[in-house]
Amino acid sequence: MAQEWNYIKAIANPLAAGIIKDSEEEFITDHYWGYTFVSNDCTGEYEVSHPKWNIHTVNSYDIKCNVKELYSADFVSALARKPTSVFLADGSTITIMKGSKIYQDKLRPLQSKSNPQYVNEGKRGLIFADKGRAKNQ
Questions:
Q1: In angstroms, rounded to a whole number, what is the distance separating the alpha carbons of residues 44 and 102?
Q2: pLDDT of residue 74
């Protein structure tokens, strides 16, 4: 059996542009906190530091990916859909700070009329989910 290659190809504008405030590109590229699965009752949290990135408009793209084999069957449906946006960020070196752990028993409901959410009372203040975006206050 021949080995299957997966790829993402893009033809992008060579001229970079700044990211527009409150845009989808800003939401995707301007993350300064990362979260990762540790266990069923614990999430890892870490700070990420990098300068603001510029983006290049993508004129055309092609994706070939065996999602089930690379990521699991859980992602097949979501990654089979057409992306809502495609862009190329110039990126940079990043720094990942030492992380901490958030335990489920430390979460408490955040009182909200519109959406049930949860809050972690951590060292850096309140961390909560707001319309799918993590915020630190």
A1: 6
A2: 92
